[in-house]
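lol ok so funny story. i was supposed to be doing the assay writeup but got distracted and ended up predicting the structure for this chain instead. priorities right. anyway since i did it might as well share w the group, maybe its usefull for someone
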Amino acid sequence: MFDSLSKESYAVINFDDENVTKVSKGIIAKRYSYSLKDTDADIYAEFAKGSSFGEINLKIEDSRHCYEVKAPLTGLHNAYNALAGIAIATLLGAKPTEITEGLLKVENDGKRFEIINVSKDLCIVNDCYNANPVSTESALLEVSKMEGNKFFVFGDMLELGEKSDGFHREIGRLASSLGYKGLFLLGEKSSFVKEGALEKGFPDESVKIFKSHEELSGGLKTELTEKSVVLIKGSRGMKMEKVTEKLLKEMKG
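and the output, tada:
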């Protein structure tokens, strides 16, 4: 994609993504970067005080401005999404006030960290629109802060290339370290997620691998006996919303 850009074009780069930064080196287009870590980026941001669950509050610095923005979003991955939008808007000549006002109007699309309070004892975090290592780690971290027993329903992260197995192991390790009570897995990479979780001491009996969405939702339902939070995540091709839909139907019916 970068190679198709002309000299007059801009490539907007996430400085914190080593792969993107590496691929973008040597391109003929002009580079414009954003970062939460590197102050040398064209757009640098840090989390501002006062951020709360369900809201991102960032302090933005570029070559000419310093200002704060808020967006009704959750998670580190959405902070990067917001930064990408800010970078593009800045290149197009938008003023800080316009950027700030625009982000306040952002509406969360369905299946993107959608919080569904089924009852006083059950909350489903429907985040199954898509999944990659960064967004999955962010979702796990955010849900770990919520009250109740946490369950992770996870379908494969697709199209990750030769590092896919390792990425899935790392997700298992993280879920274990964050204190999730159960892992409910679907897909060809489930065994690697399980391996990672077991490496961190996660109980073998608390990791369950299923062959279908229907089987998974049925198995999960029997575990939801106390106040619970269920995070449902997976790549678009895994269609994990089927689990959400079936679970909602069964719990409400």
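The two ends are 48 Å apart (CA to CA). The chain has two domains: 2-104, 114-252.
back to the writeup now i swear
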